[in-house]
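Example 9 (inverse folding). The structure is encoded as follows.
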């Protein structure tokens, strides 16, 4: 099997239902983190970079909720949201 590192791979887009689920989970996790006195941005970034669920509180079942979604899918949705706001 030959690897062609010069070729561009096409990324398969997500569906709208999945995007809504990710959005809802992130909102619920943010609420739980704020209620416990944490900065949601710092905690979610820590989780996304490390994969360590200890960055997310168990309050309101937030840790279980965020682990239902693959970190790559969360990152994809965050980048998509950012690029959409920038008009790209």
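The amino acid assigned to each position is listed next.
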């Amino acid at each position: 099997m030959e690897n062609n590192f010069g070729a561009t791979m096409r990324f398969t887009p997500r569906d709208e239902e999945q995007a809504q689920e990710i959005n809802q989970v992130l909102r619920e996790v943010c609420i739980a983190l704020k209620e416990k006195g944490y900065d949601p941005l710092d905690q979610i970034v820590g989780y996304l970079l490390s994969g360590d669920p200890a960055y997310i509180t168990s309050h309101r079942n937030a840790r279980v909720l965020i682990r239902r979604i693959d970190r790559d899918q969360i990152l994809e949705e965050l980048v998509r949201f950012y690029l959409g706001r920038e008009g790209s």
